[in-house]
Amino acid sequence: MRFLSTILVALRALRRNALRSVLTALGIIIGVGAVIAMVSIGNGAKSQVEASIASLGQNIVSVFPGTSTTGGMRGGWGSASSLTVDDMLAIREEVIGAVAVSPEIRDRTQILANGLNWNSQISGVDTNILEIRSWTIAEGAMFTDNDVRSGAKVCVIGNTVAQQLFAELDPIGQTLRLRNVPFKVVGVLGAKGFNYFGQDQDDIVFIPYTSHLRHIARRQFLNSILIQAFSPEHMPRIQQDVADLLTQRRNGREPDFTVRNQLELAEAATATTKTMTVLLGAIAGVSLIVGGIGIMNIMLVSVTERTREIGIRLAVGAHGRDVLLQFLTEAIILSVMGGALGILLGIGSSQLISTLNGWPVLVSTPAVVGAVVFSAAIGIFFGFYPARKAASLDPIEALRYE
Amino acid sequence: MSAVVQLEEIHKIYHSGEVPVHAVRGVSLSIDRGEFVAIMGASGSGKSTLMNLLGCLDRPTQGRYLLDGIDVSGLDRNQLADIRNQKLGFVFQGFNLLSRTTALENVELPMLYGARKLSSRQMREKAMRNLELVGLGKRADHFPSQLSGGQQQRVAIARALINDPQILLADEPTGNLDSKTSVEIMGVFQKLNDEGITIVMVTHELDIAHYCKRNLIMRDGRLVSDVRVTDRLIATDELRKIQEAEAAAKLTA
Asked: Degrees (nearest 5) of the Cα angle A99, A103, A106?
């Protein structure tokens, strides 16, 4: 009960000088608002990057030819052409936890169809590429395992290719000529849009990898092997198993491949946004400190102004601790209310920025909780010195103060 | 042992500047329950310092102070605060009310500190009773700025009595009041004293001192005189005289 009456007394004291209280809390309000807004914008950017990467497929471990893995850096293309279909089959057979494995053979070529032509990427893949890379079929169907076995000349085209070559026509059943080899369109992929790297993901044609090797490819090597892992926790282990398996298959030769974990890719991409968020948050945090100094300043003025009042309270029996608690409570109420208003301001302004600029925003609960705790801490820290000064006043001197 | 206050060779020396100030030099004093004492003296005589010591706002440099049988000369800051809360009541020259607080809340103030055993409703009732005792029951929700000097001092008296103290200490209680209001306030004190409350007040006005029952005079930090008041003034009578004089003035003017 003493606690409640202390809060009531403090609230009453703050209300007596309402304008001054608001102006003092303004520092905290703006500081917290800025932190919340910056962190929300940063989180929004990060989640957008993460979503972009996730749209490439979940839990993907990729194998590329080239130099060995050294913390994520791989050598350029064109060096060792070294991944084979047998490598891919071995991984499929022997690596535990590999839910789906598909090869990828890439070539860029001119496509002729319907009297038009278009330059696009041809990818030779297995049927499970849909689940590995989270693609959907919008029209028609994916080619079958039989097609892969027989090396059938069938293809599934991306939305952009469909638009460029067939426009209003139904692409299903039409024929594309890839390096002068006719392929029948059996399906159209669902649209995916541009990816994080700025590439049009719908500008693609999938054909069975067997057909690619037989009719299109100039070399019998794969550009990559994609492995979908059972779960994110298994990825590092699978990464290691694949590397060990391929090394073993090279029989002591120099390892000429790179095994990459999708998580590494995501982390590298989000590292920038993370740094940006932390930096912006820190700058906003500085303004919080300034707000705290403002509170301390005003509390000191308040204590001096109310010297007589403190003297009266001490004279009628207040302990030093009672006076300390009273003024500390005032400081904490100021900072916590400032924090609460700041959170509202932060959420509101980040929504406004989001609407105006089209940036995504994500208000994180830990940031909000952190803001409340931090603003209370500021109140305690910056309010303590003035409160202690008040508590140590001598009642006789205080009563004499003009 | 009905001595409420027992001072034994009390000294107070201040070391604020270069030269130490010996404000109180060996004062010994005994005040019984129910007394009505005025301490007089010129400026610098040490009467205010003695009052501060009596009120446990300050500690003696030397000597013993027994308040209601308890030796308070060696208590620490918090213990003295509790003594002030439970056993003493203060009335000041400048009233010292909290300015943006109602009369009722002002009277309640001492009950907020110390050992709290009353509910907020009980506190409010007790404060109301004290205000009625001093004749301000109808002004409980007024702010000090809405009250006259005399009314403010009466609120202060009500506040001083709220925890049923052993002594009421008043430091120049009529200093800021006009002559008629001063008599009214002395009337309040006399009424309280008639009901058994021990009162010790400091004043430099002789006529005010004559409303009390015992007069002490301090000079240079020592008690030089301690007499019973013989030609005591009674406030109710004096007020009547003033009213008659005012009425007469209206008739003739």
From this structure: 145
